[in-house]
Amino acid sequence: MAKAYSRRRGPCAKTAERRQRILDAALQVFAAHGYRAGSMREVARVADMSLSNLMHHFKTKDDLLLALLERRDADSPGQRTGTNDLVADILAQARWNQTMPELIALYSVLSAESLTDGHPGRDYFIERFTTVRRGFEEEFAKLHDAGRLRPGVDPHMVAGSITALWDGIQLQWLLQPDQIDVVAYLQAFLDLVTQPADSALVRVIPEN
Hints:
The protein is an all-alpha fold. About 75% of the residues lie in helices and about 0% in strands.
């Protein structure tokens, strides 16, 4: 029975392995050349397979791009510190991102390119930016309610600001990795808009 199961599983495992190999190649090609200039033929060459073999798994370049974006999300899990601290979680995610420069380069190239007419990733990036801003706004609103935001800081505005800062500073880091410290820039921004938990407690807990 175990042998029969193993035989059935073989082709599926092989197919999954080939798909991953194709996606690895597409990541290299699209990060280096963009979606428009990166060809299916070049992806097949990098994956060391025929174009017809590649197209057996991904019939169009649009299909390949969307699968790559889906894997990008799966490969970039939210990094949590376990302390329920938004600031610490943001910095932990930024540190993790720096271990995956190819993935960040792919995201930067494709997000900018999605502005062009008819780009298949446009809806993906619109939805992603909307979701990220909304998530940050909810988290910063919690900090506001806990007295952790500095006076006058609007959760909605700070959510959009940190989204823009994070993407922009990562782009600069990709261009000048020896000169740009993404974590330090994010920390400096967060220091401007938040205050330590102990000082917030003094303000929000009434005296007996």
